[in-house]
Automatic annotation (TrEMBL):
Active site residues of this protein: 223
Record's subunit section: Homotetramer.
Cofactor(s) required for function per UniProt: FAD
Function statement: Catalyzes the reductive methylation of 2'-deoxyuridine-5'-monophosphate (dUMP) to 2'-deoxythymidine-5'-monophosphate (dTMP) while utilizing 5,10-methylenetetrahydrofolate (mTHF) as the methyl donor, and NADPH and FADH(2) as the reductant.
Gene3D superfamilies reported for this sequence: 3.30.1360.170
Matches recorded under SUPFAM superfamilies: Thymidylate synthase-complementing protein Thy1 (SSF69796)
A Gene Ontology BP annotation from the UniProt entry: dTTP biosynthetic process
InterPro entries, alphabetized: Thymidylate_synthase_ThyX, Thymidylate_synthase_ThyX_sf
Protein name: Flavin-dependent thymidylate synthase
HAMAP family cross-referenced by the UniProt entry: ThyX
Catalysed reactions, semicolon-separated: dUMP + (6R)-5,10-methylene-5,6,7,8-tetrahydrofolate + NADPH + H(+) = dTMP + (6S)-5,6,7,8-tetrahydrofolate + NADP(+)
């Protein structure tokens, strides 16, 4: 179950409260507050709190840059200008706090984004739930032959069934032993901080994760990308949906310039100019390595 009964009761009580405020609010985000959106088989993402909106980005930019922004006639135009020219501090004026339930191996990828405040569920103090991420059959895939950190063709038939069986059986066996080790019935019982090391990386953990919009968009650019691992990408995609309602101007600019745009090296830009002049440019005369050329060619397809 993604949410415990106690968590559901707490959320329901919070949603039923109505407190007047003088601070800026974002109607799109208000609709998301306290709602837990399911991700994977037992995970979720929910907004606990937030600060700022599109107007807060513009307000900060106009204080910082003064006259330099007077030629921009509206907030959306200003935000697009800031995104286009890689300004960062105005986007840091917005913050979000998320409650996330996720498998440990996804959390270890996620925590590499160090520009955030994190408080994780303590397995030294509390007992972890018997909840493990078991992939859906269509999420099982072989190792990619061209990408050392990616997936290839999907597993099928007996092999897929065997892998799912082992994942499930090993997870349950590890948790059985975890429970037996910490039990105090007829024994001293092993400390929780030691017993947890026997649990597999697909066990679920939870944390509160707070970050500003600038760093959140950097996280989303990498983790909502098609090349990101599926298990973290689905969390990023759910967060994208929330951010689009929170700061619609900023998110549209992000989609345009970061997710849908591309950064070209000086060499690639020179090749593009040569192509526009009618010159035949190949990898051999481009000045690029084979890998760079493949990436450049994909951009032009």
């Amino acid at each position: 179950m993604p949410l415990s009964r106690d968590q559901q009761d707490e959320i329901e009580a919070l949603r039923n409260q109505s407190v007047p405020t003088l601070r800026a609010t974002a109607p799109g985000m208000e609709a998301h507050l306290y709602t837990a959106y399911p991700v994977l088989d037992h995970g979720f993402v929910r907004v606990v709190d937030y600060m700022g909106d599109d107007a807060a980005i513009c307000q900060a930019a106009r204080v910082s840059y003064g006259r330099g922004t007077k030629s921009v006639s509206n907030d959306e135009g200003l935000i697009r200008y800031l995104m286009r020219h890689w300004h960062s501090t105005p986007f840091e004026m917005c913050e979000i706090k998320l409650h996330v339930k996720l498998p440990v191996f996804v959390a270890r990828q996620w925590i590499r984004h160090r520009t955030a405040n994190v408080n994780e569920y303590s397995a030294r103090y509390s007992i972890l739930d018997r909840e493990f991420y078991i992939p859906a059959p269509d999420a099982l895939a072989a190792q990619s032959q061209v990408n050392n950190q990616g997936r290839g063709a999907a597993l099928a038939g007996d092999e897929a069934a065997r892998v799912l069986r082992w994942l499930t059986e090993d997870s349950m066996r590890a948790y059985d032993h975890y429970e037996e080790m910490i039990s105090t019935e007829g024994q001293q019982g092993l400390a929780r901080e030691l017993a947890r090391m026997n649990l597999p990386a697909n066990v679920y953990t939870q944390w509160y994760w707070k970050t500003d919009l600038h760093n959140l968009l950097h996280f989303l650019r990498l983790r909502a990308d098609d090349h990101a691992q599926y298990e973290i990408r689905v969390y990023a995609e759910e967060i994208c949906r929330i951010v689009a309602d929170w700061v619609p101007f900023a998110y549209r600019a992000f989609e345009d310039y970061r997710m849908g745009g591309a950064t070209l090296s000086a060499t690639a830009l020179d090749c593009l100019r040569r192509m526009l002049k009618g010159e035949e440019v190949t990898q051999e005369n481009s000045g690029m390595s084979k890998g760079e050329w493949r990436e450049f060619a994909r951009l032009l397809d």
